[in-house]
Structure formats: C-alpha cells, structure tokens
C-alpha cells in the first residue's frame, strides 16, 4: 500500500510544470555548471540575435533603397518615422539630436520582445539584469546631460515654483525621491509585464496535456499569445516614450 502511494505521488509530481523554468539562465555550452561573468549563456545568444535582427532590418534591409519599398524597407521606414515623431512631439526640436540613441533603445527592446515569442526562445527583456542596465543607462544619460546643458539650474526640476512657498520644500523632497525611483519603475515595468505574460502562457500550455480541458487551454494560449504580441510592442513603446519624457526634463528642467 505504501509502495502504491509512493508511485502515485511520483506520477503526480511528474505532471507538475514550472512556468518560471523558462527564465532560468543556463550556459550555452556544456551541461550545467556555474554561470560566471564571462560565461556564454542563453541570454547571450538571444541578446546577440536581437542585434542581428536590427542590423538585418535597419542596415541590410534598407541598403537597396527603392521608390517602391520592399517589406523590410517598409518596416524600417515605419519604425524610423514612428520613433522620430515620438521624439519630436515629446522633447521638441532640441531632442532630435538624441534620436539615434532613442531609436536604438526602441529597436533593441521591440526586437528582443518579439524574439522571445518564438518557440524554444529566451526572452531577455524578462530579466531585471537586462532591463536595469537599460534603465540605468537612460537615467545616467539624462542626469549627466541635464547638468551639462543647464548646470546648477537643472536642480530647478525639483523646485515647483508654481506651488505655495510653504509647500515647495516638501514637494522638492517628493520630486527628488520620485526622480531616483525612475530607473526602478522603468526597469520593473518592462521586465514584469514580459515575464508575467510568458508565465501565463506556460501555465495554459501545461493544462493542454489534460484531454478534458485541452481545447479551452489551446484557445486561451492563442488569445494570450495574441495579447503578448501587442504587449511586446506596447512595452517597447512605453519604455521609449518615458525615455523621451526624461530627456525633456533634462533639456527643459524648470516647472
């Protein structure tokens, strides 16, 4: 009886699926082992592939410009125009000189997000190690730029001159705290949304093996996958437009 109970428990445990396993960083070569600073991992591979996709689309795809554009040229031109208009609308003409950096950010994030939707792929933007680096790069860039362009007057960003004088010191502290929280919210928003969506898809995929609810699970996976396509673009857009907002603050810091 004890043996049968043990076998039943073992059988039931074999059905357990772990939706977070898809986010485990593993060495690309070899089986297991510690992941060090210079270890080539699945993250390294898919980060590299994101760069390859960008080069193929934006460089190779537009190398033979034509009046009637190819598909790759059309996508590249749409992406260029979309981000250019975003930078111009949010930051003004002054911010257009920083367009290449913002365009690179957008293309990298959207490429990494869409690559992560491929079967057996790895979603690099689901890892805080990646998104924190992107957010900190934006934070340090706009902060340094703010002081370089405005000097000490950049601190006017934290001084709400339109508020009553008695409230200004309190508001300055709140503004200062919110400023340093920017890279945290900037990185968590991207990684959290991408990770959550992929985890939900994995959960529904686990139920697909059960014959009774398999059709419902397949429909749910299809719906979630469609939603994740939309989320992949939206999260790249949100990260980029927030970068534009932060850049605007650096160029025009006064309330």
Automatic annotation (TrEMBL):
Residue ranges of coiled coil: none
Top-level division of the source organism's lineage: Bacteria
Membrane topology: Multi-pass membrane protein
Membrane spanning residue stretches: 35-60, 98-116, 128-148, 154-178, 199-223, 229-247
InterPro entries named in the record: ATP_synth_F0_asu, ATP_synth_F0_asu_AS, ATP_synth_F0_asu_bact/mt, F0_ATP_A_sf
Single GO MF descriptor: proton-transporting ATP synthase activity, rotational mechanism
Compartment(s) where it occurs, according to its Swiss-Prot or TrEMBL record: Cell membrane; Membrane
One GO cellular component, as annotated: plasma membrane
Pfam families: ATP-synt_A
Keyword Transport: yes
Chief location of this protein within or outside the cell: membrane
Keywords attached to this entry: ATP synthesis, Cell membrane, CF(0), Hydrogen ion transport, Ion transport, Membrane, Transmembrane, Transmembrane helix, Transport
Protein family: Belongs to the ATPase A chain family.
Biological function: Key component of the proton channel; it plays a direct role in the translocation of protons across the membrane.
PANTHER family hit by this protein: ATP SYNTHASE SUBUNIT A
Name assigned to this protein: ATP synthase subunit a
Species name: Maliponia aquimaris
């Amino acid at each position: 009886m004890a043996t049968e109970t043990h076998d039943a428990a073992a059988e039931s445990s074999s059905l357990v699926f772990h939706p977070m396993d898809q986010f485990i960083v593993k060495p690309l070569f070899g089986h297991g082992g510690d992941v060090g600073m210079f270890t080539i991992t699945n993250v390294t591979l898919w980060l590299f592939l994101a760069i390859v996709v960008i080069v193929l689309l934006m460089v190779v795809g537009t190398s033979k410009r034509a009046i009637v554009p190819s598909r790759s040229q059309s996508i590249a031109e749409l992406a260029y125009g979309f981000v250019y208009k975003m930078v111009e609308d949010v930051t003004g003409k002054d911010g257009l000189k920083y367009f290449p950096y913002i365009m690179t950010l957008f293309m990298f994030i959207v490429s990494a997000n869409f690559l992560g939707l491929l079967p057996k792929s790895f979603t690099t933007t689901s890892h805080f190690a990646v998104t924190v680096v992107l957010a900190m790069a934006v934070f340090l860039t706009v902060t340094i730029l703010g002081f370089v362009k405005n000097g000490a007057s950049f601190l006017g960003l934290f001084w709400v001159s339109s508020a009553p004088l008695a409230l200004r010191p309190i508001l300055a502290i709140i503004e200062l705290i919110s400023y340093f929280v920017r890279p945290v919210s900037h990185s968590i928003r991207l990684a959290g949304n991408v990770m959550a969506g992929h985890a939900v898809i994995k959960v529904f995929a686990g139920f697909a093996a059960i014959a009774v609810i398999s059709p419902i699970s397949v429909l749910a996976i299809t719906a979630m996958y469609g939603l994740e396509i939309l989320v992949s673009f939206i999260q790249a857009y949100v990260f980029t437009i927030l970068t534009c907002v932060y850049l605007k603050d650096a160029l025009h810091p006064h309330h």
